[in-house]
Structure formats: C-alpha cells, structure tokens
Amino acid sequence: MLRITRKNSGSEYGRKHNFSSIGSADDFRSRVPVTNFDTYVPYIGSILEGKKGVLTSEEPLFLQPSSGSTAPSKLIPLTKSLRREFLAAIRVWIADVLLNGRSTLCGKMYFLITPPLEPERHAGEKVKVGFEDIEYFSAVERLVLKQLLAVPQEVRRIKDMEDFKYVTALFLLKEKDLGLISVWNPVMLSVFMKNIFDNHVSLTEDLRNGFIRKDAAIDAETRAILLKKLGKNKARASEIEDVFKVCGTGSARNTAPHEICSRIWPRLALISCWADGNAAYYLDEVRRYFPNVRIQPKGLIATEAFVSFPLTGEEGSALAINSHFFEFIDLSGPDNAVKEKETILAHQIRKGSSYGVIVTTGGGLYRYNLNDIVEVTGFRGEIPLIRFKGRIDQISDLVGEKLNNFHVEKAMSKVFNACGATPAFCMLAPDHDSNKRPFYTLYLSPNGFPDNVLPGIAGMMEKELFENFHYSYARRAGQLLPVNMFVIDGEKGKPQDIYLERMISGGKRAGNIKPPSLDKNTGWSGLFPGEYLKV
Question: At what angle do helices 257-264 and 234-247 cross, to 10 degrees?
Fold first, then answer.
C-alpha cells in the first residue's frame, strides 16, 4: 500500500486524497473512499484525451476493455507496475505446475483465445485501447510462449463464432503433444469438444490438405497466416481418422468420447478452468471427455486485478499478497449486506468466513470494490487460501425482493445435495405469466434426477429463497408468484451453448462468460428447448 501510494502521490488522484501524508493502513482507509468503476469514469476520459499523471505517475500502456457483469465497455488502465503485479502471480502458478508435474508443460499449451470485444471508440483518443493477454509477459517470455501455443494468436481475428470454433478445433487436433489446456469457462471447452466430434470428418480433411474451409469468414491476410502455420499433415490426419474408426463415429453423445480424446491427446495432463461457484456444475461434462486428466480450479482473476492463483494440493487458491494491497469486507447481516466502512486486512480474515474483496493496484485503482465474494478455505503458512463464491452485484430486483447470486447459489447447493444429484445445467431467472404477474423460474437440465424428485424441486428452492427477508416479504405480500420450474430437453439442444450465444450476442466476450446461478434476463423459456413442469 505504501509503495503504491508513495509512487503515485504526484498524480491527480494522489493529490486529491493527499497520498503523500499516508503512513499507515488506517490513514489510507480514512482518507481514500471505497470506489467502483463509476468513480474512475472522468479520470479514464482524461487519460483517453492524453492527459498525463491522472491516476498514476507512470503513463498507461493500454486501456483494456473489460467484459464484466455490470458494464461490458469498462476500460481498465494497464501500467508497467500493474503488469509486474500480474506477472508476480502468473509466474508462481507456472512454477508450481512445473514443479508438481513437469510432463504437463513438456508439450504444447492451449490458452483460450477468443475474439475481443469491439471497444467503443473515442474521438481523439491518445492511448491504445485493447491488448492481447500475452502482452502481460516480457518480450523473451512472449517469444517462448508463441512457440509453445497450440493455437496461434491470429485466431482471435476471426469474428464469426462458428468459424472461430472450427479453426480452434483444427489447430487443437493438429497437436498430438498437447500437455495443458487453460480456459476460463468449462462450458467453452465442452463447446470445442462438441465441435470436434460433430465436424471430425471435415476437420480431418482440412488437416490432411492444409486447408481451411472456403466458406469461413476469414480475411485474406489472416487466412494466409493460419494456413502457413497449419501446413499439410497427412500422417496426423490419418491417425485421427483411425481413432474415430476404432472408437466409433457420430456425435459426442453416441460415442465413447473419453477414449477418443485420450488417443488424440495422449500426453494431456492438466486442464485449468473455473471450478468454483456455479461453474462446478459443468465439470462433469468436461470429465466426460477427460476423466483421467487433472482439473485444476483457477484462482480469482479479473481485468482489474490478479486476486489469487491455484497451488497443487491445496483446497482453494492462494491470495496474491505480492501483487496488490487487499482489504476485505465481512458479509454479514440480512441478505449478505456488506459493511464497506469496516474493512479488515489479509491477516485478519478467518477460515470458513465469506468476504467481499477490495483491491488497490499499481494500475491506478484505489480501494476498488471488485464485488466478488470469496470464502476462506484455509491457509498456506500465513497466506490465506480462498475460493470464489459469487458476485455481490448480481442482483435481480423485480418488486424489491433483492435476490443475489450468492444466496441463490447457496440455495441451489442445498436443494441438489438433498436430491442427491447434480444437474447438467441450472439457472434461476425472472419470468412472468400470461397476465404479466412476475415470478422466478428454475431452468433445469436433469442429470440423474429420479422422476419422482423433479416435482418437488421448485418447492424446495422456494423454501430456501424464503431465507431472504425481502423475497419472503414480496411473496407474502402477493407481489411474486411461487417459483416455477422449466425442464430443459438436453437432447434437443445444449442449454450451455444457448446461454453462451445469447450472452455473446449481447456484447459479452466468449471466453469471459461465467456460468450463471442467477440471471437477470427474461425470455429464456423461448430459447431453451423443453417445457414448464406441471405439478
């Protein structure tokens, strides 16, 4: 904290809050208010216009668009200091992976690369907007990484999602020595695998001929670069063709997908992806393809800050104490209300408790409320181990019920544990009947649920939601109808794919879309195949 404030005491923000006279955490907390992105909007505007020394003494290298849940067009400054803070955590994670399984990184690596958001352009902007994740690394590290990447960076230029998925699948199939897969959303990995199974015939032919299908919407320059990196690979194409002949063909649903995947990528040792919160429900689909590959939950990483990273053998991820300055807010009182005025520091948080995260970084965000909820799972020495639980700001409020994602996720966990089964997909979202009377619908894709259990799930969910005072009041006052349930027919369409498509069409970046527990959008019954459960 002192390093950051002293370095930036001469900035416009530092002068406003008298950084030069701060000598302790108490000074810092008393003089600098807790902030959110709205606090920085005028400062970001000044940076875009080329003004110097606004939030930090050093100039931002880039402004990175963030596809966060509240504002898809947020622009976050990246300075050299912030880049060093990210690298401090990234390098420890990579070192831990190497030390605990060198075979993982002996082959090629796949880091999810998705088409970027198209940022809003500002007249006369003086700072570059948008950068590739690989630019966090030094020039030497970037050179090494580019040699190890299974899928070239240029695929991010493909804007059509179907073509993007096809070309990604093509390069993944090319690499027999794939050792590591790193994605954010586990659903995205399942989407790629389904694409491979559905299109393995054409993919194999393209791999054999060093070709990318003609109808793919790829500009000439990008196509030429990709074709050069793809090359003709008759031996690999024949190998993949033989795998599908031996193990069966057709869609992934009708074959033994794990047998095919293990033969295609025999050295794959680690999959890194979200595995906390609602993402845990979608790991079964990943394990269906890769039952013998270690799945390592990711830490908590945002465009604004690198909060935690996983460590082998630990439950939870380690707080990145050498990256940023952290404060925490207790989640206590009704509806998990937060007490922003009473923050505590990293050495004061307790195992088993849940907290909101406030971060101060070298990028110019001071006492920034990430609105993320974490649970402390234990300690590595004195370093807290945390697990992501949800978002504080994911709130649905039709009539004053103030349902938040954290509470909904806890309710789902209790209900499904009581049922002794895990759904393939689940999401609560607002709905209304033909008379426009509001209620919430639980969209559920059953997976191992006995038929006699399904009719009672909506009532069980309703009972858990009644723990929220405001929801209970709205129901008792007749402002909301009871929870309904919509049973999704997974045979007619994957709800994960449908959810991704709607989020992408709404401006979200594909790789950053988190699996939901609570979604504030309506109209899902018109998108998901299936029907309301009649009780």
Answer: 160
Q: Residue 142 CB: number of other CB atoms within 10 A?
A: 14
At 180, list the tokens.
């590591």
367 touches 8 (CB < 8 A): no
Cα separation, 291 vs 294, whole angstroms: 8
User: What pLDDT does 215 receive?
Assistant: 87
Tokens for 204, please give them.
Answer: 């194999």
**401: nearest Cα among 329, 495, 467:** 467
Q: Got the DSSP string for 427-474?
A: EEEEEE-TT--EEEEEEEE-SS--TTTHHHHHHHHHHHHTTSHHHHHH
What's the order of all strands across the beta sheet hosting 294-297? Answer: 108-111, 178-182, 270-273, 294-297
Q: What are the distances in angstroms from CA 303 to CA 279, 310, 424, 438, 464?
A: 19, 18, 29, 35, 33
Taking CA 409 as the corner, what is the angle to CA 398 and CA 461, rounded to the nearest 5 degrees? 70
Tell me the torsion sign for CA atoms 5, 37, 370, 305.
negative
| DSSP secondary structure code for residue 88 in this structure | H
Contact 297, 273 (CB under 8 A): yes
Specify the amino acid at residue 142: R
Beta bridge partners of 270: 180, 294
What six digits make up the tokens of 59?
Answer: 């100039």
- Mean pLDDT of successive 10-residue segments in the chain (535 residues)? 96 97 95 94 91 94 67 76 93 86 70 61 58 65 77 87 89 93 84 89 94 90 93 94 79 68 93 80 85 91 92 93 96 53 90 94 96 93 91 78 82 90 89 87 86 89 87 82 92 84 73 75 91 81
| pLDDT attached to residue 27 | 95
The 3-state DSSP class for residue 305 equals: coil
Q: Amino acid letter at 69?
A: S
- Record the pTM: 0.75
